[in-house]
From TrEMBL:
Principal location listed in the UniProt entry: membrane
GO cellular component, one term: membrane
Topology of the protein relative to the lipid bilayer: Multi-pass membrane protein
GO biological process: malate transport; monoatomic ion transmembrane transport
Keywords: Ion channel, Ion transport, Membrane, Transmembrane, Transmembrane helix, Transport
Tagged with keyword Ion transport: yes
Lineage, highest ranks first: Eukaryota, Viridiplantae, Streptophyta, Embryophyta, Tracheophyta
UniProt family annotation: Belongs to the aromatic acid exporter (TC 2.A.85) family.
Name used for this protein in its record: Aluminum-activated malate transporter 10
Membrane-spanning residues: 68-87, 93-113, 120-139, 151-170, 177-197, 209-231
Record localization: Membrane
UniProt source species: Cannabis sativa
Amino acid sequence: MAIEKEVSGQVQWSIRINDDSTKVLAPEKGLLSKFFLGLKGLIIWIFSKPAKFFHNAWKIGCNDPRKVIHCLKVGIALTAVSFFYYMRPLYDGVGGTAMWAVMTVVVVFENTVGATLCKCLNRICGTFLAGFVAIGVHWIARHSGDKVEPFIVGVSVFILASAATFSRFIPSVKSRFDYGTMIFILTFSFVSISGYRVDKLFDLAHQRLSTIIIGTSLCILVIMTVCPIWAGQELHTLINRNMDKLGDSLDGCIADYFSGNNNKESEKSYKCVLSSKAAEDTMANFARWEPAHGRFNFRHPWNQYLEIAAAMRGCAYCIEAFNGCIKSENKAPEQLKKQLSNICLEVSSNSTSVMKELATILKTMKKSSRLDFLVEQMNTSVEELQNDLKSLPGVSTPLPLPLPENSTPKLEANDDDSSNVAASVPVSVPLMEIIPLVTLTSLLIEITVRIKSTVKSVEKLADLAHFQPMTDEKLKKSDNNKKKVIEKDQHKEEDETLRTLQRV
């Protein structure tokens, strides 16, 4: 405790520590104990890293067993091609260039059938074309004399390598033949430059081409026979799944706004639509190389899937803007929100029904007879929303004119007249309070417009891919659903008319 003393006219401070407040200090650890603690931490760290790695690897394999199957397929292909080294007859037939077959398997084996076929055909065509051109250049250079031969080979390498490299910047070439162009540059440079010192250039080109054909053939055989993964099927499933998530996200965002909740699941759903463009482009490119499989023909309109995905991204961008308005600090009055909550929820419900029906069309690859009816329902609800927007105060009602100072409205003693005058005075809402709600409703109307473009894209796909109509049982179910909806609407109209008559 602090004690204040006065010594010779000056103030002196002193601190006295009570005997009871004693503190026990732990003895310092020695160097040996510190060493053992550090060694223990190092051993735990060394063993925890592999355990964590194997745990993550196990989770990846459990989440997607096809990745494990792909690893096994690569092992099968490499084991099969290695027999060209182990078996003497095969090794004598191919020669020392059998390692090119092993390298080909490692380079061209991909996860999907389309990607593997794309790389295999690009590698074969690039190698064959480069070998053919290199042999022609070599023949011209040999017949031009020993002094001119290196210049002809050098100039040909410069011109062809530069032209092939420039072609890789062309979008159509880059998307389909980029790997083949790179192989062309590699093979032509290798064969033409080696031909200056190697006499049997034709044998070298033949061995390289044969080993590449062997490696690519084994890759194609394994990828198409052992649990094949088709890029077209993956693209079809991805678009269908994104469409389902988009419908759930739209319904969830509208419900969260009018209920006051903040559900993060709906936010994650539409963001996967925005981030899947690169995967969709890649799958569509590889799907063009695949043969007919499952429900997909050889010339299936894969580009139309990209149009559907682009239309869905337009809807997702509107939902993102809608979600941003929900998180804004400028909130609309609760009274106005309640006035539009029912019709906005109806618009979102009808829009979600349209998206779900489109997802069903893609999943079953059958034309739906309910789609036009659902779109009509969505349009009707949008018209009702627009009519309700016109009835909002401050939107269609003019603002009251300012009265002159020291003047009061003249009212008679009759109560009815005073109520009529009060009713005739327009009610207005501040503009900044009504802007958030009008923005949200306009975004909701814009989402329905984007959904219509998605409907057109799906219908175009159904026509190009020759989707068959639904069976009779499904048609009967859809007709029954239509009748139920019509009966409900009729009952609603009858109830509304009765209520109006009762009020009158």
